[in-house]
Amino acid sequence: MASELPDGLITFGPDANCTLALCPLEWSILRYRPSVPASAVFIAFFAVALTLHAIQGIRMRTWGFMGSMISGCILEIVGYVGRLIIYNNPFSFEGFLMQIICITVAPVFFSAAIYVLLSQTINHLDPTLSRLKPKLFYWLFIPADIVSLILQAAGGGLSSVSTTKEAVDRGVNISLAGLVFQVFALLAFSLLFADYLMRYSRSAARSKTDTKLKIFLAFLGLSTFFILLRCVYRIVELHEGYFSHWFRDEKLFIALESAV
User: At what angle do helices 104-125 and 134-161 cross, to 10 degrees?
Assistant: First the structure.
């Protein structure tokens, strides 16, 4: 939605021409300049993670997991580069697009990686204890991720290029639908994951579980929880649109989006 002022200055949208030299920071959509140190730290973190996952994936030939993690890391990096652009010009529409689309959809790929991991873990431990065949985790949850990805990306793109508040709200609602669908899929996955762990813990195969495997399963569960927490935060953040205090709170963004 292009926000045009009486003197011809445009604060937001494809035709935005405001800069800090012409317009006060309060007129920008975020109303703050994103932290450069925080953005740089997360760019470096995801760059290192990308490199490590690429090396490990090539060595172990875990192409599905590697592809999902690398895709998510690339999107996160692009999103935080967008925040650096917004720091230089809080009215940059390109920077806003990079942030809102890339950071929003990146966790979808991390979810897909978790689905792949659990399927492989069940195959390794005891597939007979799972209520679903391991391959069904691919065929059920990854398509759900794709639907969520399409809705979130389409909603972010539509809301960013719209010229009326109604169209912006429509785009935000589409993104929210994608996030809600992702939460639903993650909750279903979490229940199946917890159910399998309970059934496995009661089985005779439990004696074969070593400390490394226990740590791995704990981190897998923790990763799922953090992605779920992040999705709930994004729903709360966007439920009032781009002009709410939730959307303009950088501390919350760093704590519940970046750090999580």
Answer: 180
